[in-house]
Amino acid sequence: MSLLLPFEPPVERIQYDEFNKNGAEVYVKREDMIHPFISGNKWRKLKYVLEDASAKRINTLVSFGGAYSNHLVALACAGARFGYQTHAFVRGEQVANHMLGLCEMYGMNLQFVSREAYRNKPQLFDQYFGSRQEVMFIDEGGRGELAMRGCSEMLDHISPGFTHVICAVGTGTTLSGLAQAASLKGIKPEGICVLKAESLTDEIGAMIPGVKEWNVHHRFHFGGYAKTTPELLSFMKDFASRTGILTDQVYTAKMFYAVRQLIDEKYYPPGSRLLLIHTGGLLGALSQWERPSVD
Ligand SMILES: *Cc1c(COP(=O)(O)O)cnc(C)c1O
C-alpha cells in the first residue's frame, strides 16, 4: 500500500507580464494537479506517513485542523482510499462548510473541540485514543520528518537551470523538505510566510541544519493566517483570469503576489529562473463565497 503519484506534475512557464521583467523567468510546478482532494503538498506530506501506518498495522488515523483544513480533506480522502478509519479534532465551535462536508463524505469522524482543548493535541489524543495501539497520531497539517521527506521529492524530476524554488509557508514542513533537495541541486529555497510568525524562521532553521542558503519572506501575510485584503483578492482574480492558474487566498495567492512584488523590486538578480510550487489547496478558494470565517 502506498500513495503513488498518478503522474509527474508538469512544470509550466507562466505567461504573466508582471513576472516577465527585470531579467526574471518564472515557472510553476503544478503540484495542485496531483489530485482534486489530496492536493499538492498534502499528498507529498502523507506519502511516507501512510507507509509508516501500514508498516505499524495501524487501522485508524487521527489528526487535527481548523474548519478549512486542506490537510483534513486530504487525510479523509486518502484514508477512505487505503482503508483507514479517520478521526479529526476540529478547532472551534461546530460549523458546516464544503470542506468539512467532504471530510464527512469520505467517512471521517469529526469532533469539534474548544480552542483551549485544541492547544494540547497530545493530551486530546491520549484522552480518546491513548490506550489503542492501532491508532496513529498525525500532527496538525501533517507536519513532521516523514512529511519533509515526501516534500523533498517534489524536485526529483525537474530539469536543470533553476536558481530559486519558492513555496508558501504554513508550518514550514514543505519548505524544509524542498530545501533539503534544493541545496543538493544548487538551487536557493525561499518561502513566503502566510502567517504572522517571525519565529517560524528559527523553527525551519532547526529542521534543515545542513542547508546554508535559504530565506523566508515575512512581508506578505496580509494580516495573518487566512486573512485577506481586497488587494489580494483582486490580484487572485487578475492572475487567474490572465494565466488560467487558480490560486487560493490562504496560501498560494500570497506566494504568487509576493513573487510579483519581489520581481518588481529587483530582488532577484537578472538571469534568475524561478520555480514556484503550486501547493494546491484550491478548495480553500471556494470559501471566499461562504460566510466569512471567524478564525
Ligand atoms: C498546507 C498548505 C501549505 C503549507 O504547507 P506547510 O508544509 O505547512 O508549510 C501551503 N500551501 C497549501 C495550498 C497548503 O494546503
User: Which sheet architecture does the biggest sheet show?
Assistant: 6 strands, mixed
- Name the structural class: alpha/beta
Let me know the number of strands. 10
* Overall body shape: globular
**Ions, cofactors, ligands: which are bound?**
pyridoxal-5'-phosphate
Overall description:
The chain has eleven helices and ten strands. It has 295 residues and is of the alpha/beta class. A six-stranded mixed sheet has the order 1-2-10-7-8-9, sandwiched between helices. β7 (164-169), α7 (173-184) and β8 form a beta-alpha-beta unit. α2 (70-82) packs parallel to α3 (98-105). The longest helix is centred in the N-terminal third of the chain and has 15 residues, at 41-55. Pyridoxal-5'-phosphate binds at residues 40-42, 70-71, 141, 168-175, 248, 251-252, 279-281.
Concise synopsis of the structure shown:
With 295 residues, the chain is an alpha/beta fold.
Overview features:
17% strand; 37% helix; alpha/beta; 295 residues; 11 helices; binds pyridoxal-5'-phosphate; six-stranded mixed sheet
What is the element layout, followed by pairings?
Blueprint: E1 11-13, E2 25-29, H1 41-55, E3 60-65, H2 70-82, E4 85-91, H3 98-105, E5 109-113, H4 115-119, H5 121-129, E6 135-137, H6 145-152, E7 164-169, H7 173-184, E8 188-193, H8 200-207, E9 215-217, H9 230-243, H10 252-264, E10 273-277, H11 283-286
Parallel strand pairs: 2-10, 3-4, 3-6, 4-5, 7-8, 7-10, 8-9
Antiparallel strand pairs: 1-2
Bound molecules: pyridoxal-5'-phosphate (PLP).
Pyridoxal-5'-phosphate binds next to α1, α2, β7 and α7.
